[in-house]
Amino acid sequence: MAAPIESLLNEICESEDPIEELKSLRTAVLATPVSGLRQAVSGARLEIIFGLLNTNDKEQIEVCVEILSRVLQALEPIQLAQNYKTALQSGLNHPNDSVRLLTLTQAIAALSKLSNTKAGLDALFRSDLLNKLKDVMLTNDIIRYRVYELIVGVSTVSPVCLGYCANSGLISQMLEELTGDDVLVRATAIEMVTSLAQSQHGRQYLAQQGIIDKISNMIIAAESDPFSSLYLPGLVKFFGSLAIMDSPQQVCEKYPVFLEVVFSMAINLDPTLTPVALDTLGVLGRTVEGKQVLQKTGSCVCERSAQYTNQKEGSTELRVRCLEALAQLLTLPVEQQTDDLLLLTESWFNCLSSQPMLMIRNISTQPFPELHCSALRIFTAIGCQPWAQQLMMDTPGFVEWVMDRSVGTGKEAKDCKFELVGALLSSSSIQEIFGAHNYLKLKTYLNEGPYYVNAVSSVTTEGAD
């Protein structure tokens, strides 16, 4: 296929109106697998096709873009950056949207691959592509987002990669966006900074640059900003992520405004803020250290979270997220159980309502599969804790309900019920509390699997209707 492609390129080069030859080339490259195309275009003069983008003929531009979209996939990133950087730079400023998008996509793909090796990084930062992208991104928010996404992705690979990106000036530019006038750009910058904080060296860099303190101050200032709902969830997610990766206690003690805002958002009926607050409380409370931090606030976290579960007028999604948060807060695996922590989870469960078992059970019977499963996950969360097992045993009909396979239809519901049974059996206290008979029935349920169906035999009598 190499010869036909080279031949077609020659024909295109010699033609004054090459649209038919371009269509033939398009057919040829689309018919060739990328692996075969790599050899076919390795020495091809693709600058011919790039040159034909400089026209007002929309059909010609469209065909050229289709050809280049396919062909450029076959090139090695270093080859693309070295041999076609001028063409890529020109494409970033092309008046046609499809050309700019093609160029941006190919440039970012090449830069991403280049960042995987030391030689590639050297080639990347020696080229002018990044500087060109810096110019173009100022005129287009989508391009700005993609460039920041690229830089953050490269930076998280290693401290060396972060150093390269910091030296380019693009990280500093991104961090300046945190306090810019455009709140939507600010929200994007917060998202990118949160991604950068996923690596330890990224967090160290942000701390050294004073960015974590700056974000804390942004949370404080958000109270007087009428547009804060557009970016405040991102600030909370940043600190929630930071707390889980480092230490909930250290982060919450150093930045107390974080938890204050989370609690405020949790009791706020704002559909943008409340779900993020519930998610954050759940993520924090899933760890032992997080539970202890939340306990120090002196308030019943579960009571704050549970207020939405029984609101029939509330959205199903919000109720589900509330139940999921409660399940995480109440989770306490056997290996983490101590007398103090068991007392804590028991007190939190009792905060849910005057009859928490009945409340969760009633939610599980509502005709919404997602609510049914989320309610079951709360029972699963407490299922290995002795106080909860005793509560289940003392609740009339509960044990029978657990082992009733007709309750809940659909794969997810059956899986959730199976996980509940598994949680009950993971604790050594279950046999004593539930009794030998119920214990054996639970073991049978577990051994039969989540989708077991009782066989029903029938006898046909001759002559029956």
From TrEMBL:
Name recorded for this polypeptide: 26S proteasome non-ATPase regulatory subunit 5
Keywords: Acetylation, Chaperone
Subunit details: Interacts with PSMC1, PSMC2, PSMD1 and PSMD6. Part of transient complex containing PSMD5, PSMC2, PSMC1 and PSMD2 formed during the assembly of the 26S proteasome.
Function noted in UniProt: Acts as a chaperone during the assembly of the 26S proteasome, specifically of the base subcomplex of the PA700/19S regulatory complex (RC). In the initial step of the base subcomplex assembly is part of an intermediate PSMD5:PSMC2:PSMC1:PSMD2 module which probably assembles with a PSMD10:PSMC4:PSMC5:PAAF1 module followed by dissociation of PSMD5.
UniProt GO cellular component terms: cytosol
Lineage: Eukaryota, Metazoa, Chordata, Craniata, Vertebrata
Gene Ontology annotations of biological process type: proteasome assembly
Homology family: Belongs to the proteasome subunit S5B/HSM3 family.
Gene3D superfamilies linked: Leucine-rich Repeat Variant
Organism: Cyprinus carpio (Common carp)
